[in-house]
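Standup notes
- HV: blocked on the assembly model, inputs below
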Amino acid sequence: MHFAFDDDQLAFRDAVRDLLAKECPPEVVRAAWPEGPDEHGARKGDGARADPPRIERVWVALAEMGVLGMAVPQAHGGLGLTEVDWVLLAEETGFAALPHPFVETVCVAGPLLAAAGDPDGLVPGIVAGTATVGVVPLDDLVAWGDRVDRVVLLDQRTSGRHWQARRVEGGLTRGPKPGTPRRIEAALDGARAPLVLQQWKEVGRCGTPDDAALAFDRGALGTAAQLVGLGRRMLDLTVGYVSERRQFGVPVGSQQAVKHHLADAALQLTFAAPAVYRAAWSLATGAPEAARDASMAKAMASDAARLVGRKALQCHGAIGYTVEYDLHLYLKRAEALARAWGSAGWHRNRVATALGI
Amino acid sequence: MDLTWSADEEAFRAEAAAWLEANLRAWRERHGGRILSGDTAEGFAQHLEWERTLFDAGWAVVSWPEAYGGRAASLWQWLAFEEEYHRLGGPPRVTQNGIFLLAPSIFEFGTPEQQDHVLPRMASGDDRWCQGWSEPNAGSDLASITSKATRIDGGWILDGQKTWTTRGAFCTHLFGLFRSDPESQRHHGLTYLLVPLDLDGITVRGFGRLDGDEGFAEVFFDGAFLPDDALPGGVVLGGEQQGWAVAMATTSSERGLTLRSPGRFCATADRLVGLYRERLAADPEAVDPTLRDRVAQRWMEAEAYRLQTLQTVTRTVAGQPAGAETSLVKIWWSELDIALHETALDLLGPEAELEGAWSKGWQFALSGPIYAGTNEIQRNIAAERVLGLPRK
């Protein structure tokens, strides 16, 4: 029994953390939001923005470090890492609120398409950072729909209990056109820019039902890891703020009411994180309970990140409730991810079924 | 990362499970299946007999050295033992305040003579230790202790009062904090004393907890003379005026994994899942449909505690001591215990009002957020020492 990451895994995590701290600060996340007021006139992305090319530079930098091919087998040009090797990297992309389809393209599509023999020839592009794939689990919302080259549907709908992965074409447009699929202008997280998928055409299946099931669990794991990272980011931001901000002549963080909020936030993260790391181990080793463990990870991380977001906002007071301040970038991403790849309740249902109830 | 048990650990677990299963059954049969609460006089005697059975077979304190009655088990083996103990329905350990709270301090601060005398007699149940820290005016604010120990030739004179002393009425000895420097304030000038309760001038009065059991006691010291040689090796643990530092060494054990190991909560969660199945089989219409979600949530929370403990033990084995995060652990298990029992009571419906294991367990669980440092104090500690928020 040894429940810890090894030195190589931690060193890779540190390298990605350093890279994202430099290349993906809040102004880069913000730059990925639409400019100006949305169709309702709301100003959702105001604040210091980086130059738009910096958004793409983060992705290229990650490709250069090998991160985008982390889960792709070496035979296909990737690093061939296991879930235990990459789960901390996914957590860091959450911490940075990386404005790219990292889970969909890197954690899920790369290894899934490679396992299926790379039917569209996209895998080298995924590894190099020139191709992105949207993955649509369970519903018809394509996160990062604006910037994907291929869409894969993951669901259990038409084949009962078995998972299936289908490559689809069409059904997405890159702007609002009457009579064509709807672009969601006013998304909660402007960087994710989800599109609704309609009138698509199946191009072909992708892998076996087991491959598809594993792909879904990897997506749930990657998203859970990002949620833990987002929770850590919001907690860090808040600890920093309440230690500086003074009211009644003292830092607000010295007040018990504030301390207890943040202790509760730390509590949830402290117990969600090991559930995420265990799920990584279960997937990496093909443990019989892997699906249950992935669901436990996603359920706990979703609830934890949501609670941390609420505590973070409350402890910031009014400054947190603005678009100029950075907290909302992380808060909204966490809220979107809490429901993406299955909500906490959806996953608890899977855990209950696995427990035989 | 490797989340499998080694062959050695599995063998240890199997040996423990086989022994526990046979001996728990024999113990229950000896009492005609009527095991009373260990927090009553009659029940305490039953449980002490069980403690002796554990000790005689070397299972009372598995992680201790063999010289003191243990089997030098690793922390991993200890965790496995705890899982089996609770899975098989082993009773609460009535010696726990000695073996889990005092013993770590004896190992760390005791002289060889103190260790040789105190530890084996504690493990066997010959001496039963209760904790004498809280006072009527020193609860969460433990440093405001006023019970006095006055140095005189050949010993100490003790005056004052301790309270909330768990199972004090059934114990033989008390480990307590006393103000030994009358000029001192707060956490200075305290001495950690080992006190036989049969001294003249000591009165122990048991009283009922919320669940009705005589699990509490108050202990009065009226000029009681504690001779230096009341115990071999002396009655001071860790040096005069050093009491606070010595006491704080046991608080992380109390909050952390030793007092309330995950095995206990995982076993309760498994019983909760079983209860859901039973209720559903008995009358599907009577089961609140939202309870399935809550049962799954409780199971995950217990499992998360187990996983967090595996991380902690991995670090401990690598030589990194547990820090302030034990405060978060204490909040987690104490709130989990209540939630587990509330969910069970909701499953039972109106019949939960009748006396039963779940309702008894619920009443006990209610004390969790209060004892071993209230959860409010733990939140303060976590905020200041884990997150680094300003103290004032």
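- HV (later): unblocked. The mean pLDDT of chain B is 95. The radius of gyration of chain B is 21 Å.
- Next: hand off to the docking folks.
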